[in-house]
Structures are given as structure tokens and as C-alpha cells.
Design a protein that fits this description.
The chain is mostly helical. It contains three helices and no strands. The longest helix is centred in the middle third of the chain and has 30 residues. The radius of gyration is 23 Å and the shape is elongated.
Length: about 100
């Protein structure tokens, strides 16, 4: 596979060189936002089923709450690790 491997490697490297990072990043961000929104919707639909909610929330209410979860959620998730210090340190960063 010597010659074919070299040709394949050159083709892959050329593809990577021609790749536009901004386009790839935008597509990745769009898929991430879509995945987060659909996951939150499925969780909300499950809770509505379990609690026998007959009428779901309005679109505006869902939009603001989903947006707050997507913005504030990662900070709340990271906060415990940001405040944690190993026992060997004498002081804490969060008080």
C-alpha cells in the first residue's frame, strides 16, 4: 500500500489545507445549538407527559427559558470546579 498511502495522505492534507475554519465552525455551532434545543424540548415534553400538562408554554416563554439555560447553564456547571482547590493549597479561590 506504499504508493496509495502516500497519495491518500497527500489528498487528505490538501483537503485540510483548503478547509475554511470559519465555515466549519459556523456549521458546528449551528448543529450544537440545534442539538441543545431539541434535547431541551424532548426533556420538557417528557416532563409535560409525566405531570399531565395539557397546554404547553408559549413559544416566547420557551424561547427565553431555553436561551437562559444555554447561556447560564454552562457557567453553573463549571462553577464547582472553578472553586475547588486541591487539599495541598492553603487558600480557596471562591472564599
Amino acid at each position: 500500500m506504499g504508493g496509495a498511502a502516500t497519495q491518500l495522505t497527500e489528498s487528505v492534507m490538501q483537503f485540510v489545507t483548503n478547509m475554511r475554519g470559519d465555515v466549519l465552525g459556523t456549521i458546528g455551532l449551528a448543529f450544537l445549538v440545534y442539538t441543545v434545543i431539541t434535547t431541551i424540548q424532548k426533556v420538557e415534553a417528557s416532563f409535560n407527559f409525566v405531570w399531565r400538562v395539557e397546554r404547553p408554554r408559549s413559544f416566547a416563554r420557551r424561547f427565553t427559558e431555553y436561551l437562559s439555560v444555554m447561556i447560564v447553564g454552562p457557567f453553573c456547571w463549571r462553577l464547582p470546579w472553578a472553586c475547588w482547590d486541591p487539599p495541598s493549597k492553603a487558600h480557596s479561590r471562591c472564599g
